[in-house]
UniProtKB/TrEMBL annotation:
Gene3D superfamilies: Ribonuclease H-like superfamily/Ribonuclease H. InterPro entries: RNase_H-like_dom_plant, RNaseH-like_sf, RNaseH_domain, RNaseH_sf. PANTHER family: OS12G0587133 PROTEIN (PTHR33116:SF78), REVERSE TRANSCRIPTASE ZINC-BINDING DOMAIN-CONTAINING PROTEIN-RELATED-RELATED (PTHR33116). It comes from Dipteronia sinensis. GO terms for molecular function: nucleic acid binding; RNA-DNA hybrid ribonuclease activity. This is RNase H type-1 domain-containing protein.
Amino acid sequence: MVKVGKKLAEEEDWGRVFKCKKATLPISYLGLPIGARPHSKAFWNTLVLRMGSRLAPWKKKFLDKGGRLVLIKSVLSSISTYYMSFFKVSRSFFWGDGVEKRKVHAVDWGTICKRKSHGGLGIGRVLDINRSLLAKWVWRFGKEEGSMWKRVLCAKYGISQSSLSWKWKAPSSASVFMKAVGSLFDEGSVSASILEGGLKILVGCGDRIRFWEDVWLDDCSLKVAYPRIFALASKKSGTIRDFGSWQKDVWRWNVPLRRSIFDWEVNMWKVFCMALDCVTIIRIIPDVVVWTHRPNGEFSVKSFQRCIEDSLGDGQVDVVFSWGGITPHKVEVFIWQLIKGWMGLCPKVQYGRAWSSLIQAIGWSLWEARNRVVFKGISADVNYVIDLLPPTLNALKFNVDGSAKCALGRAGIGGVLCDARGKVLCLFSAFVGARDAIAAEMLAIQKAVNLYASKTTFVGRDIVIVSDSKSAVDWVNESGIGHINLVDSIYDIRSKLDYLGNTKVIYNSRATNLLADSLAKKGLASTGEFIKRGEA
């Protein structure tokens, strides 16, 4: 039993009643002191010494560079610290430094900490990891409305429990934790710009979004975007639901003003009202906060850390070396050092004849391996054989696909509907404008569902819609919001699937979807839509 604050007269009695040992702060829990000052160096000394003592015996006996890299990323970089106090431990361990001898560090630690696509090993900076972990509390604040920790925090600092936004300045009397999270929103900081750009509020019924303070309409709050209207408003606090009402199932805005507007304020008022009318209030859907840096809208520490790396200018993308995950990790680290020229070889060896013939030797070995397969009759693995199975009797199969030239280039969709005998019942190919690949895949599924629902002769027959986009299939079949930019299409598909009842959407590899893929590419090259229906 640990007391917090002043000593109580009943402390001795409580200890006997609950049969608890008495202790005083700070105490040790999971290897870290609780109740001590985390800004003090002594707070982390125990952990640093313990990790250093455990790393030292391994340096030469068991682990190569690949193993050391795995250990650093999975253990050392997982420890959430406020300071970069583990950088030296990680660096020394990776290069195999001992107590008596320091080995050559062939690459600077900043390069090693870069992500793999930018020429590093993807270890990450401890300070960036810490900021990312703190940012997750901001995300949880908006998602976990009824959690105990949020209720305690809101009660202590006078925050509304229904609030979706953490952004507020911590008072000087706040705890170290509150000040640490509040520091993420320091003006001009990288974390503030990432959070403000990444956390977006999706309006539902409007009962959790503060009308004037929260950022839900544009890139800033209404009181910042329309300061004159805010000054005229007689009600300067409340949620969206407090600034309107439902009239015959239609939402009507009502922003009361303390006086009539002047002639020179009319245009400003009209722009304000037009902006409000662009928002759809949905009575049965709750307000939610989404993370725009991931397609599914869910926050992750890794995505926030990647945003920090991008904002700091992590360098050009490394197209020389690809981490395929096929060879052992120690081999990949070796090739990485080799390609970068960080092997510590003398110039005569590095540019010698044997070293220059490395690529030729590898190519010859691959050619010999191919000849052994071709001329010695080695059969292919059965796992690479793909069977194109037709649907079951009285069922239909709709293969669909989407195609796009680039991130937001020309896009097309295509699909083919067949019965159990392989007879083609419907074909479609269409140009869908400027879309990315995943949007085209989703539109192809939506088109197939609409075509099936519009044909009365198909009603009552089971149908399987097949797509080679696993992400699109997962978003349709799961219960979440899916991709934040495809919410309308996803909800339309789900509602029609629920209405039809005998329709399901499944994933299959591209090799089983070649005809639909060809139709999608034809749609990409066209300017219109082609649909051909046969007899069921």
